[in-house]
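Subject: for your reference before the review

Hello V.,

The reviewers asked for a structural picture of the protein, and I figured it would be easier to keep everything in one thread rather than splitting it across files. Below is the amino acid sequence we used in the manuscript, unchanged from the supplementary table.
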Amino acid sequence: MKVDLHIHTAYSDGVYTPEKIVELALNEGLDCIAITDHDNILSYKPAVEHAEKLAKETGKTQLEIIQGVEINTIYKDWEVHILGYFPDVNNSDFIALLKNQQAARVEQTKKILQLLLKKENINIKFEDLTKLVMPGGSIGRPHLARAITSAGGTQSTTEAYNKYINKESSVYIERKTVSPHDACEIIYDAGGIPVFAHPYDVDIAEQLTKELMKHGLCGLEAYHRKHSPAMVEYFSTIAENLGLIVTGGSDFHAPNPVNGQIVMGKNFIPDWVYDKLKEEKKRLDMA
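And here is what came back from the structure prediction:
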């Protein structure tokens, strides 16, 4: 069983449509993927429909697609990402969570655009950003960086991040987002499996993991392209000691020739990761 449980599309900061992601996944020989766009779930339906269509046309086994999401949260000085698998997308609190997250993204972006014009004379219209994402998708910092570069404000997106999209910049506004504790609770109460994404990014990951368990956290993403084998072992051991499941994925956004080709499915993820995720979902449904 070849799986990748962390993939992004053009509905957030990925570059490919859900349909293209399905085709790439099949080309990589994947059996199951989870599309985990930031703060929205719009890619799931077109991805499933395309997978069904290709299976009928080819007569091959249909690619399994797990309903997923990645919620961007802030806790103290850290940005903490919470993955959610199998949430009931009709749950009212879950719907409200996504709505509030989207509103916060829009508010942050518009304020930054105002400051860019006022302080740096960089004129970017909000509509210029919405064109960089699929309709209804999540506007974020990667889109801002691309827009700033396109407007001539910087020579590259890397320069845009270094100059404008960080806490030290006078034009940057922090997003008003949900806490990781609330994100875990809402996903869990919606029948989903909350997972701490790429914990290596958070210095207090072990301590925070224990806190989040009180709010429904079910797993740790030990397998990730940023995690060395030693880190995989470290976070897997933490998960085992705390009774959490282990998940993993490529966190695929786009091929990156500068940092080495980041290709979905290239992260080695053992078969049992998929099995444990499905078992956890069964356990929650029976609870």
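For the response letter, the relevant points are probably these. The two ends are 27 Å apart (CA to CA). The beta strands are 3-7, 32-35, 64-75, 78-85, 193-196, 219-224, 245-249.

Happy to draft the paragraph if you're swamped.

O.
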